[in-house]
Amino acid sequence: MKFKIACLQMDIAFGDPAQNYKNASKLIAQANGQNPDIIVLPELWTTGYDLDNLKTTAEEEAQAAKVFFKDAAMEYSSHFIGGSVANKTEAGIENTLLVFDKNGEQAGTYSKLHLFKLMDEHLYLAAGKEKGLFSLDGHKFAGLICYDIRFPEWVRAHALHDVEAMFVVAEWPIQRLEHWRALLIARAIENQCFIVACNRAGSDPNNTFAGHSMVINPWGEVIAEGGEGEEILLTEIDLDEVKEARSRIPIFTDRRPELY
Prior knowledge:
With 260 residues, the chain is an alpha/beta fold. It has helices at 17-32, 54-57, 63-76, 121-124, 152-159, 177-191, 240-248, and strands at residues 2-9, 38-40, 59-60, 79-89, 92-100, 106-111, 133-136, 139-145, 165-170, 194-199, 214-216, 222-225, 231-238. 27% of the residues lie in helices and 30% in strands. The strands form 2 sheets. Strands 1, 2, 3, 4, 5, 6 and 13 form a 7-stranded mixed β-sheet that branches. It has a 6-stranded mixed β-sheet with strand order 7-8-9-10-11-12, covered by helices on one side.
């Protein structure tokens, strides 16, 4: 099965949810002109890394974002990998990815497991505890958030559920762009699946972000890559390539987990 994908590599207004909802709406409408099956947004797209003010800008149980994606999915008949938002829960404020199917039904959720101490996430955010598995149109996928890609054991834990593509949403800085590219390519090769990675563009008071959203096939070939600025990255993936890669090099049947 083929999916046409639009990654919204948006610039994020620091600590300004109203402006970010407006910008996201504009980009979604533009992407709709290409009739994408799946639309992907970046990490913390409603607030950026304005961590000091999350107590006031984070959403109670991500309700505003849920309504936004439900309405957008139904209007445009597209699935949404809704980036992530600052989400007030009983456990604290979590960095939560939302997935909605094209009928406006919530298909998945994932709160970031690995908090990035270099950007003080551990001081403001509560870590998630569940995997990011979900299904769309009968196909198994997974969601990951930014720093997660540095933990191959976490990514493999999802691949072992026969996922065919993993969606990575991020705010990855420009100074580690080569890490971003190398890690994403490695995760695609070692798990023999598509990696669809949507990064943000622009800067905030403390960081400049890399852009370079990427789509990588199960052989590790980059089939689409953005630049550094705000843009919509469009491409198509064919999930039959996952079956082909896994049949030609059977790493999952050749694993020796009893010795690891």
